[in-house]
Write a structure and sequence with these properties.
Low-confidence stretches: none
Helix content: 40-55%
Structural class: alpha/beta
Number of helices: 14
Number of strands: 9
Largest sheet: 6 strands, parallel
Strand order of the largest sheet: 3-2-1-4-5-6
CATH class of the largest domain: Alpha Beta
CATH superfamily of the largest domain: NAD(P)-binding Rossmann-like Domain
Mean pLDDT: 96
Length: 295
């Protein structure tokens, strides 16, 4: 039986581990956070001692890491993947990273006799559990062919974008729209409330607008102030939009829209809102960023 390793047992990594186990794969995992390891172990997942131990025990290794430096440490840091004997193994890197990071990791992995593809995804926790993510792959055709039996259990569609870095580039290209959309909803609701409209009625009306989206429908309850399952937190979206702005600067592409969304996300991330769902950004916007007139 093919052993799958998963590094990063946050909400997304845990959901993917749960999905793969339900599809008959043997899975071993690890996270740098002890609480995440304990939670995954309580759910029945086998936990290894560190990232290198996961790589040593697995045939195919998936990583879902928060940011670029964390991904670098998982591969080449103390107790990282590449300190183990990884000859012949395949790494599927599913984080949201900058393209230059992906291009940097490939020769390190291949120098150890292993192969790597990147497969960042669109979709969050519910889609991971249902196996309906959308994967954007960068890397060699033959490595994608080897990864397909695993990726097909996690996704509804796999699109090969091109060589190393291409998958990350496409994920970054998709992110400004989400950041700008959440900020647009924040501004729309704030404007309507200042004009005396009711929050619930506005959320209903926006779902009939030309810019209505599946995200808006799924998050309507949160926008009304109701509790809901966390899917993507504000701090993580801020990190993704920061990568967009940084990659744009390196590529000579101005990103005024992404930069504007980043300002509000950064303000929220500096407070306890940083760990909340991105659909709560409009509430933060109204509480902290509106101009209050005297009298």
């Amino acid at each position: 039986m093919t052993m799958i390793g998963i590094i990063g047992l946050g909400r997304m990594g845990s959901a993917m581990a749960e999905r793969l186990r339900s599809q008959g794969f043997a899975v071993v995992g690890w996270d740098h956070d002890a609480a995440a390891n304990a939670g995954a172990a309580a759910a029945g997942l086998r936990i290894a001692a560190n990232a290198g131990a996961v790589a040593a025990a697995s045939d195919i290794i998936i990583s879902s890491i928060t940011e670029d430096n964390g991904a670098r440490r998982v591969f080449s840091g103390p107790d990282g993947f590449l300190l183990a004997d990884v000859s012949g193994k395949l790494f599927i890197e599913m984080s949201t990273l900058q393209p230059m990071t992906g291009r940097e990791l490939v020769p390190l992995v291949e120098g150890k006799g292993a192969r790597l593809i990147e497969a960042p995804v669109l979709g969050t926790i519910p889609q991971a559990r249902a196996g309906t993510l959308f994967a954007m792959v960068g890397g060699r055709d033959e490595d994608l062919s080897r990864a397909r039996p695993v990726l097909e259990k996690l996704t509804r569609r796999i699109l090969h974008m091109g060589p190393a870095g291409s998958g990350y580039a496409m994920k970054l290209a998709a992110n400004p729209g989400l950041g700008a959309y959440v900020q647009a909803i924040a501004e729309s609701l704030a404007l309507g409330l200042r004009q005396g409209l009711a929050l619930g009625v506005m959320v209903d009306a926006l779902q009939e607008s030309a810019t209505a989206s599946p995200w808006l429908k799924a998050k309507a309850g949160v926008l009304r102030g109701e509790p809901a399952e966390m899917t993507l937190d504000i701090r993580t979206l801020r990190k993704d939009i920061m990568s967009v702005v940084a990659t744009g600067a390196l590529s000579g592409v101005p990103t005024p829209l992404a930069s504007g969304a980043l300002a509000a996300l950064s303000a929220a991330a500096a407070t306890d809102y940083g760990s909340r769902d991105i659909a709560e950004l409009p509430q933060f916007f109204r509480q902290a960023l509106l101009q209050n007139f005297p009298g």
